[in-house]
Design a protein that fits this description.
Layout lengths: L4 H9 L3 E4 L11 E12 L20 E5 L6 E3 L4 E12 L3 E7 L1 H4 L3 E2 L6 E2 L4 E10 L5 E3 L4 E9 L15 H5 L9
Antiparallel strand pairs: 1-5, 2-3, 2-5, 2-11, 4-10, 5-9, 6-8, 6-11, 7-9
């Protein structure tokens, strides 16, 4: 069952949903708008293959470069380019809620995708969401940090579960940090 506005507000009040920072004006009829931060990762060009294994990390300096957008500036995403971004908000879910984030139609109609395949959030997670941003447009996009770029949809589960994956408590600090030989922080 997808939560409507009144159920979202009750769940926030009850502590079942945590949003930090929380702005009540971002709660819509059946979702909460999330904003893009000033941290992006641009993939490094090259002809070398990226080997996909359980320990492959998008933060590897040979794969992507961290870009921090200065206050008041924007980040350009070229036509047919994919970059990673991260939300300003950290969303937390209790053991009976899961959900997913999706793009906002106003930007999707221009050709902006905010996630390519990993839009689901597990129960028990409390993290900032990494956005898989892709520009399908023939023109460059300028993304301003703080723009409400996606929305989070909450769903009540039958039963309870607790996720324990490596990005369970992901924050922008993890997004900005390059992996070490021991693995991600």
């Amino acid at each position: 069952m997808i939560l409507a506005r009144d159920a979202i507000l009750k769940s926030i009040e009850a502590g079942e949903i945590k949003i930090d920072p929380y702005d009540p004006s971002k709660v819509g009829s059946a979702s909460v708008d999330l904003t893009v931060s000033r941290h992006f990762r641009r993939f490094r060009p090259g002809h070398d293959s990226i080997t996909l294994r359980d320990d492959t990390d998008y933060r590897d300096p040979s794969i992507s470069e961290l870009i921090e957008v200065p206050e008041g500036a924007y980040f350009e995403v070229g036509s047919r380019e994919m970059v990673l971004g991260i939300t300003n908000e950290r969303v937390g879910l209790c053991s009976t809620l899961c959900g997913w984030f999706d793009g906002r139609s106003r930007f999707a109609r221009l050709g902006l995708l905010v996630h390519i395949s990993a839009g689901f959030m597990q129960p028990g997670t409390f993290n900032q969401t990494v956005l898989e941003i892709f520009n399908m447009s023939p023109r460059t996009f300028r993304l301003y940090p703080g723009t409400a770029i996606c929305q989070f949809i909450f769903q009540r589960m039958e039963g309870q579960a607790e996720h324990s994956g490596r990005f369970k408590d992901q924050t922008s600090r993890i997004f900005r940090t390059s992996p070490t030989r021991e693995g991600p922080p």
